[in-house]
Amino acid sequence: MRRILAADIGGTNSRFGFFELPGEGAPVLAGVVRLATTGAESFPALLEAVFASGPPFAARACDAAVLAVPGPVVGGAYCHPPNIRWDIDLADAVRLGLANAVLINDFAAQAWACRSEAVQGARVLQAGKPDPQGVVAVIGAGTGLGHCALAPLAPLARRGPSCAGGRGGWLALPSESGHAAFPFVGDAEAAYGESVRRGLGHPYCTGDDIVTGGGLRRVHAHLSGEDLPPAEVGARLAEHPRTVEWFARFYGRACRHYALAVLAGGGVYVTGGVAAKNPALVEHPAFMEEFRLSRTHGELLAAMPVLLNTNQDSGIFGAALAATQMLRHSAC
C-alpha cells in the first residue's frame, strides 16, 4: 500500500495529513497533525516538528508528498510566501527524506479537494445540473480573493489498473484573477469604488480590495460610518442588512465572472474564511441573483452548481488527491 504526505501550509496555521492509497480507491486519511506556522523558525523546522509527532508520520515512509503553499510556486519546488517570514524550498524536504515531493499553490489544493470527500458536506446554494467531467471553479475570499480551476485531462492512451481506469485525471489551473479590476454597476457603486480607490491610492479597485475581509470592512464603513475590523463586522451583520446585501452582490458578481471565464460546468465552489465564518454573505438572495445575472448566458449560469465549502481540512484532501494522480500517472 502506497503512502502520501499531504500538507496545507498557511500563513498562520499548517495542516499535515498522512494518507494511505489502497489499490484503485481514493486516499484514506490515517492521521492529521496541526501546527502553528508562526511557531516554526524555518520550513525544515516545520517538517521536523511533523515527523517528531510519531507514527504514521515519517519522511521515508512516504511514497509521495504534495505540499500546498500560500503563494506562487516556481518549478514545483520553490515558494516565497508573502505572509510567511521564511522561504519554502523542496531541497530542504529532500534532505529530510521526502524524495518524491512537489509544491502546489494552496488554491490548487482547494480545487483538487472539490473532487474528494472533503466537499461532501458543502452547502448547496444552487443545485444546477453538474457535468462530472466539466471544469470546476473555486473562488474564495479571505485576506485576498483566490481563484483556481480544475480541468479534465484527455484520457490516457495507455490504460492499466494503475491509471485510474484509463481516465486522464485533472489539471489544476491557478489564477491571479483577484488582482484584476473589479467592475462596479450604477452610480451608487461607482461612488463607493471611487472612494475606495482614492483611500487606497490605487489606479483602480481589484477583487482583493472589494471581495475580501478588508473589502467587508470597507463596504460596512461606507454604508454605516463604522470602521471596524472584519471579525467585528461579521459579528454584527444581523444588524446591518445593507452591508450583507452589498457584499453578497459583489461576491456573486466575482463568482459569475470567474464561472464564465472557465465555463464551470462542473460547479462553482465558494471557499475561504469570509464566507465560512459569515455564510449569510453568500446565502443572501442578492448573491445568487447577481451570479445568474447575464444578458446572454443566464440559462448557462442557472445550470451551474454553486456550493459553499466550509471544510477547514479541504487543503490536505486536495493535496492528497493530487499526489494520488501523480503516483498513478507515474506508473502508466
Q: Could you explain how this protein is built, in words?
A:
This protein is an alpha/beta fold and 332 residues long. The chain has 2 domains: 2-113, Nucleotidyltransferase, domain 5 (2-Layer Sandwich), CATH 3.30.420.40; 122-310, 3-Layer(aba) Sandwich (Hexokinase, domain 1), CATH 3.40.367.20. Helix content is 36%, strand content 23%. It has 13 helices and 14 strands. It has helices spanning 43-51, 90-95, 106-113, 186-200, 207-210, 213-224, 230-235, 241-262, 273-277, 280-283, 285-291, 298-302, 314-330, and strands at residues 2-9, 13-21, 28-36, 64-69, 73-74, 78-79, 88-89, 101-105, 123-126, 136-141, 145-152, 170-175, 267-271, 306-308. Strands 9-14-13-10-11-12 form a 6-stranded mixed β-sheet, with helices on both faces. It has a 5-stranded mixed β-sheet with strand order 3-2-1-4-8, sandwiched between helices. Strands 5-6-7 form a 3-stranded antiparallel β-sheet. A hairpin with a 3-residue loop joins strand 10 (136-141) and strand 11 (145-152). Helix 3 (106-113) packs across helix 13 and helix 6 (213-224) packs across helix 8 (241-262). It is globular, with a radius of gyration of 21 Å.
Instruction: Say what the CATH topology of the largest domain is.
Output: Hexokinase, domain 1
Order of helices and strands: EEEHEEEEHEHEEEEHHHHHEHHHHEH
What is the oligomer described by this structure? single chain
CATH architecture of the largest domain: 3-Layer(aba) Sandwich
Number of strands: 14
Instruction: Compute the average pLDDT.
Output: 92
N→C terminal distance: 17 Å
